[in-house]
Amino acid sequence: MLESFKKKVIRMFKSLTFLWKYAWNVQKSYLVCLILYQITNTIPPLLIMFFPKVLLDELMGQNRISYLLTYIIIFSIVIFLMKFLSDFLKNTAFYKRCIILEKFQVELNTKLSKVDYACLEDPEFLNLKQNAEKFLYANGQGFSFVLDRAMEIISKVMIFGTVIWIIASLNKAVLLVFLCLAFLNSKAQMRFKKAYARLEMEKNPKERELSYFMNVFSDVKYGKEIRMNQGQYVLMDFLKGCLHKLWKFYKNQMYIMDKSDFFMHLMDFFQRMVSYVYMVFMVSKGFISIANFTLYINAIATFTTSMDEVIDSVNDINQYSYYFEAVEKFMNLPMDIYDGKVNRNMPSRFESLEFRNVGFKYGGSDKWALKDINCFMKAGDKIAVVGENGAGKTTFIKLICRLYDPTEGMILLNGVDIKEYDYVQYVKFISTVFQDFQLFSMSLKENVSLSRKSDENRIHGIFDSLGISAFVKKYKKGLNVRVHKDFDSDGFEPSGGVAQKIAISRAIYKDTPIIILDEPTAALDPKSESEIYEQFNELSKNKLAIFISHRMASTRFCDNIIVFKNGSIEEMGSHYELMKAHSVYWNLFNMQSKYYMNAESGKL
Ligand SMILES: Nc1ncnc2c1ncn2[C@@H]1O[C@H](COP(=O)(O)OP(=O)(O)OP(=O)(O)O)[C@@H](O)[C@H]1O
């Protein structure tokens, strides 16, 4: 038990020191405001506690009107100033803490953008992220709430100390009873808070699921499917299921709160009974004056509230230290790929890319998505990657892009394992158009350059060559028009084909020695498709260009074709060689051309 208490204290201490240091580094004035706020907040309750005794002493003693008036004026002015100042400081601290929050948000998201891509597919990671975010947002204030609470403890302890001193001067036995009750209460409250926090953690996966199903109905991406297939019913069932499960969590949390409140009020009840019976006895026997009676009664009332507040603050800090653990774990997650050990500088010129005995399994899967992959590609090569669905083509590309590292074997660039290069420098060598490419709700030029600074002339040139300049000219803002309508009702909503050409422009703009196109022409009409391949042939001179395509005709632009089957390379060679081999490629090619020929001869 002592061990777990020690652990708890260490965790709380670690979480607090982290926050203090963080806040101090980002916004010192926030902490100054917080300290001054607590001072101005501590003085009024102490004055209010003592003031009736001062007045009663004067009234029952010398009863000097001028003294009484002076006391009242000074008391009122001090209370007014303290309260105003404390509110002012509280508001100032609020906007100053937003700056700390912003910095923290940026850091969390930066981490998210750099963790291994595989993490984004791992539910455990996503739950951890959700817990870490609780540190930011829970209670509407997030971690700054803990700082406030920590400061509050100082103020409450000052008030509490004064109250203990007053009660001790009345009767030490009464104080002892009070302290025992308070101890019992604090132990119970700690248990309740722990149970509450555990439920909070457990409900995270359901909250994540709920936010997914809530989003499905408003996301235009799903709108068509839902409407055409009347998918709202099944989705609504999921939504209701999540809501119901969460409702159960909330109910259980409130049940814990009820128990906690009951216990707290019960302790309060005993304390009140003891104090009133004792005080009435003391006054009726003439052992204490009326003035001291008011002081003691005020002190006893303050004892309960300040004790409760101290317990509350300690428990809140304790609860947040669990979230802090999630933040710490999240922030310290290794970024294996991003931060990998760099042993080599990137070469100034790209020469070759080689797969040597490469095998790959996705996280959580026993199945080899790729196995025994061996191939050599050099600058200037045009490679087509073909194969049936699920054969491993996209996985092959993802490994080149280092979205994942091979499970076995290695990939070499200019003869050096790509893991030895700095990841950021390495990806500067590659431009890609993925099957599921994405355009962002930013301006058109930012979508192409993916940077705040764009070379507009180059973008215009690329758009001209891809034949999409006319679409841009329709907009007054030109390249500054915002893509999609999420934030601008005049935004540019490109058709599938134009969107694909914008994604291709992004790859051309990046101008790298390796270009990878995964189903780049799926949304293009036959004329555009043919034009794109011809232009690419021109644009990718001296570069390594890798195309994945299900349209076998596109392979005619390539000098080498890699045929995948069940995660392995089944065949490799030129179109002529593979057709001569009469195997997988020949089969795929013939199957497709048969449809065209039959259609032409009217037999389809
Ligand atoms: N993120 C993932 N997690 C687990 N398994 C995956 C993942 N992505 C793909 N796979 C599996 O890996 C295998 C190869 O998939 P891949 O997407 O590389 O095939 P493909 O040849 O590109 O298919 P398609 O032509 O349909 O795009 C498949 O069995 C697929 O189910």
Please describe what this structure looks like:
The chain is of the alpha/beta class. It folds into three domains: 16-331, Up-down Bundle (ABC transporter transmembrane region fold), CATH 1.20.1560; 352-437 and 512-574, Rossmann fold (3-Layer(aba) Sandwich), CATH 3.40.50; 440-493, no CATH class. The chain contains 19 helices and ten strands. The strands form two sheets. A six-stranded mixed β-sheet has the order 6-7-8-3-9-10, with helices on both faces. A four-stranded antiparallel β-sheet has the order 2-1-4-5, covered by helices on one side. β7, α17 (526-539) and β8 form a beta-alpha-beta unit. α2 (28-60) runs antiparallel to α3 (65-114), α5 (143-170) packs antiparallel against α6 and α9 runs antiparallel to α10 (290-331). It is elongated, with a radius of gyration of 35 Å. The model has no long low-confidence stretch (mean pLDDT 86). The structure holds adenosine-5'-triphosphate. Pfam families: ABC_tran (PF00005). GO terms for molecular function: ABC-type oligopeptide transporter activity; ATP binding; ATP hydrolysis activity.
Keywords:
Rossmann fold, single chain, elongated, 4-stranded antiparallel β-sheet, 604 residues, alpha/beta, 10% strand, binds adenosine-5'-triphosphate, 19 helices, AAA+_ATPase, ABC transporter transmembrane region fold
